[in-house]
Specification:
about 350 residues; alpha+beta; 2 domains; 4-stranded antiparallel beta sheet; epoxyqueuosine reductase activity
Length: about 350
C-alpha cells in the first residue's frame, strides 16, 4: 500500500491532521492496532461482571481489542476528539444543587454526537481518498465494540484518568472521541504520560461509589449506566444517591482539576435544546410519549425511550424536597401502564411523604 501512496506515510499523516482540524476536530492522533494489554484488562472486567446488563460487551469479547478482526485489513487507527460543553449551558453544580431541576449530562444537551462525529469522519475519509485513492476504512463513534479510550491514549490524545475517561492536558476530558479504522500504513504517535498523580477527587465524589479503585469502574453502580443502559428497575438502594441526575452523570469530571482547561464546544449542533440544561422535573415528567419523541428527535437521549425517561425522573422527584406540586405530578402518572414506572412512582411518593424528606 505504501508504494501506491503519492506521498510518504509521514507526509500523509500531517495532511490528515490538517484536514481533521478543518472539519472541526480539536486534535487528531494515530495509533497502531496492538491492544494486547487492554485486552487483558477487558477480559478481567468482563469476568468480574462489571459490565452489568450490557451483554453486547461480552458478546463481542476480544473483538473489541482487536481492530483487524473488527475491520479486516486494518493497519492504523485515526483517533479524533471534539469538545462538547455548550458555552451557554447553565452552571452544572447549580443545577445539581437544586433538587427541583433535572440534571442532564452536558454531552447530551444538543444533537446526537454519534451522527455529528461519524459524518465528519466520513468526510475526512473522503478527503484522504482524494490523495490516496480508495482505501479500506470504517468510522466509529461510541457505536461499536471499540476500545476508544485506549486507542485515543495510544494516539497521544491524552491519558486515561482514574475515572477511566481520557484526559487531555490542555483540554480536560469534556470531549467526544471518534475513530477511523484504516488500511493505510500510517506512523503511530507516542502515548502521553499519566498526569493524575496522587489526586483522587473523581473517586471521592462519585455519588454511588462506582469508581471502585483508580482506573476501575463498576458499571453496575455508575449513574450513567443506571439511567441510560439499564433496562428495568433501578436497584432501590442506589436511588437516593442518584439525586436529580436523570440522564448520565458528570460529577467525576466536574471536580477534575484538568477540566479547568476544558474548551467550550464550537460546534453549533451541540447547543442546548429544549432548555434541558436546567429544566424543572415536573415539566419534563409531564411530557407525553409523543412529546418526548418529538422534542428529542435527533438527540442521544431519545434512545432510552419514554419509559426509562419517566423512571429516571420519578427517582429524581422522589429525591426532591417535599412539595405538593411534586406529589401531584407523581400522582398524575400513578396508574401508568408500565409496571416499572408505577413502581418507581410509588417509591417516589413514599419518599415525598416521609417525615425525613426535607421541604
Amino acid at each position: 500500500m505504501s508504494d501506491a501512496l503519492p506521498c510518504s506515510p509521514l507526509e500523509l499523516a500531517d495532511r490528515i491532521r490538517a484536514w481533521a482540524h478543518e472539519l472541526g476536530f480539536a486534535s487528531v492522533g494515530i495509533s497502531g492496532i496492538d491492544l494486547g494489554e487492554a485486552e487483558a484488562r477487558l477480559l478481567d472486567w468482563l469476568a468480574a461482571g462489571r459490565h452489568g446488563d450490557m451483554d453486547y460487551m461480552a458478546r463481542h469479547g476480544v473483538t473489541r481489542a482487536r481492530p483487524a478482526e473488527l475491520v479486516p485489513g486494518t493497519l492504523s487507527v485515526i483517533s479524533v476528539r471534539m469538545p462538547y460543553w455548550p458555552d451557554e449551558a447553565a452552571d452544572a453544580q447549580g443545577v445539581l444543587d437544586d433538587g427541583e431541576l433535572g440534571y442532564v449530562s452536558r454531552y447530551a444537551l444538543g444533537r446526537d454526537y454519534h451522527k455529528v462525529l461519524r459524518s465528519r469522519l466520513q468526510k475526512l475519509a473522503e478527503r484522504i481518498e482524494t490523495v490516496t485513492g480508495p482505501f479500506g476504512h470504517r468510522a466509529f463513534t461510541d457505536s461499536a465494540p471499540v476500545l476508544e479510550v485506549e486507542i485515543a491514549r495510544r494516539a497521544a490524545l491524552g491519558w486515561r484518568g482514574k475515572h477511566t475517561l481520557l484526559i487531555h492536558r490542555d483540554a480536560g476530558s469534556m470531549f467526544f472521541l471518534g475513530e477511523l479504522f484504516t488500511t493505510l500504513p500510517l506512523p503511530p504517535d507516542a502515548p502521553q504520560p499519566d498526569h493524575c498523580g496522587t489526586c483522587t477527587r473523581c473517586i471521592d465524589v462519585c455519588p454511588t461509589g462506582a469508581i471502585v479503585a483508580p482506573y476501575q469502574l463498576d458499571a453496575r453502580l455508575c449513574v450513567s449506566y443506571l439511567t441510560i443502559e439499564l433496562d428495568g428497575p433501578i436497584p432501590e438502594p442506589l436511588r437516593p444517591a442518584i439525586g436529580n441526575r436523570i440522564y448520565g452523570c458528570d460529577d467525576c469530571q466536574l471536580v477534575c482539576p484538568w477540566n479547568r482547561h476544558a474548551k467550550k464546544a464550537m460546534e453549533p449542533d451541540f447547543a442546548v435544546r429544549n432548555g434541558l440544561d436546567r429544566a424543572p422535573l415536573t415539566a419534563l415528567f409531564a411530557w407525553s410519549e409523543d412529546e418526548f419523541n418529538r422534542r428529542l428527535e435527533g438527540s442521544a437521549i431519545r434512545r432510552i425511550g419514554h419509559e426509562r425517561w419517566l423512571r429516571n425522573i420519578a427517582v429524581a422527584l422522589g429525591n426532591a424536597p417535599a412539595a405538593p406540586a411534586i406529589s401531584a405530578a407523581l400522582q398524575a402518572r400513578a396508574d401508568h401502564p408500565s409496571p416499572v414506572v408505577r413502581e418507581h412512582i410509588a417509591w417516589a411518593l413514599a419518599r415525598q411523604h416521609s417525615p425525613d424528606t426535607p421541604t
